[in-house]
Amino acid sequence: MQSQRSTRFVIERAGRSAFTRGLVRAAICAAVAGLAAGCASFRPAPVDYQPQLERAQSQTNGPIVASVAVLSQRETTRMFDLPLHKQHIQPIWLRLENTHTNAYWFLPASLDPNYFSSAEVAYMFRKTWAGNRNRRVADFMESRSMPLVLPPQSTREGFVFSTLDRGAKHMWVELLGEMDFRRFEFLTTAPERRFDFQRVDFEALYATTAIPDYSRQELRAVLESLPQAVGDRQGGGSGDPVNLVVVGNEGEIGLAFARQGWDITEVLTFGNVFKLIGSFLFNRTWENSPVSSLYLFGRRQDLALQKARTTIHERNHLRLWLAPFTCEGQVVLVGQISRDIGLRFTFKAPGWVTHKIDPDVDEARDYLAQEMVSSGSVETITRVGGVGKVSREEPQRNLTGDPYFTDGKRLVLFLSSETMPISRIHLEDWTTAPRE
């Protein structure tokens, strides 16, 4: 019996020793890993790495020249040696030139109310037992941040770490001086993605055609004579109603929608079809999801915009076509707007997936009118006939079979070149007023 107890004691002791040795090995491995992390490399790009300069936009307002650019995901990783996009961070490069004898205070919260501080970004990418490396990251991020003070007759540049936008990026750059305020408005796009409007050569669309220019009085009859609905690739079928017209200068149109949070759409590719199906199956949102092609003026839409909810099933979206005429020298865009309220499978759509629209298409049209009023982007809002009234009891169907009804009117928005107070907006209705 004594021999058995001795044997058991030896075995248990050996087992405990093996377990202890295992713990020691694990601790040593952890220490080695920690030391390796402490020696982790951090190799940001040198200061002369400035790919953003090729696509920088610049504006002048009095004594201030402001220039901005958005980095691509690849450029960001190269410049900062950090995957900032994984934390939904998008660096905005900014250069400010001040020729005035007064100083200005740059207001980054106007560019992005949810911007990240340099220390916040550095802390997100800290590593355990890597004090030296972490300090280098923090110092580098601070050195590349945009200073808040713009001294007299000076130039400052740096980055504002904004929240990630995968499509269009709308930015206000504001500076406050002594009894002075300077404001700039920019609109850029993510450089690494391909959007539907980028496929269109707008200059070449009507390059060989004489473009008529109509007065506002003449425009009414022209708009009433437009097709009632969009069609398919073959030029047939009757799809969603053509219920939207936008008149303005080229620069004003994009800004008017961007101010209200409308996103541009990506090109519908083979890979995006699977991403679309995946978003449908897992109920994910996709702010720049492609839209199907509808046809007007013999071609698919030139521009598509959308406002997505937290799920891809729901969004408000519109399609626009550059019209073969202008109005008093301004661009005219004709299109259709509707609200998506769900997704469904159908063999009538690419990828066999399509959105189901709200049958009350006038609701989405009137929603846009309200938005433009709130944004201060329009000087005149009116409506014109031409769609044709469709009753709720006998609805029309679009190209994928969804029913809709409408009062038959088109929304017409005349954009303003300056912020328009609500009290100064003209409200008209060409459907009831006699033609002049």
Number of structural units classed as domains: 2
Major pleated sheet: 10 strands, mixed
Give the end-to-end Cα distance, rounded to a whole number of Å.
Answer: 120 Å
The helical percent reads: 25-40%
Low-pLDDT segments, ≥5 res: 30-38
Structural class: alpha+beta
The coarse silhouette is globular
The beta-strand count equals 22
Multimeric organization:
single chain
The helix count comes to: 10
Mean pLDDT across every amino acid position? 86
Relative strand content: 25-35%
Structure report:
- This protein is of the alpha+beta class.
- The chain is about 25% helix and about 30% strand.
- It has two domains: about 50-190, Immunoglobulin-like, CATH 2.60.40; about 195-425, no CATH class.
- It is built from ten helices and 22 strands.
Task: Describe what is shown at a glance.
The protein has 436 residues and is of the alpha+beta class.
Which keywords apply here?
about 425 residues; 10 helices; four-stranded antiparallel sheet; 2 domains; ten-stranded mixed sheet; 22 strands; Immunoglobulin-like; alpha+beta
Question: What order do the helices and strands come in, and which of them pair?
Answer:
Blueprint: H1 2-38, E1 57-61, E2 64-70, H2 73-80, E3 89-98, E4 104-106, H3 108-111, H4 118-124, H5 131-143, E5 149-150, E6 154-163, E7 168-177, E8 180-189, H6 202-205, E9 213-214, H7 216-224, E10 244-248, H8 250-258, E11 263-264, H9 270-282, E12 295-296, E13 299-300, E14 303-308, E15 315-327, E16 330-345, E17 353-357, H10 361-375, E18 378-384, E19 396-397, E20 403-404, E21 410-415, E22 426-427
Parallel strand pairs: 9-15, 10-21, 18-22
Antiparallel strand pairs: 1-2, 2-3, 3-6, 4-5, 4-7, 7-8, 10-16, 11-14, 12-13, 14-15, 15-16, 16-17, 18-21, 19-20
Helix pairs in contact: 4-5
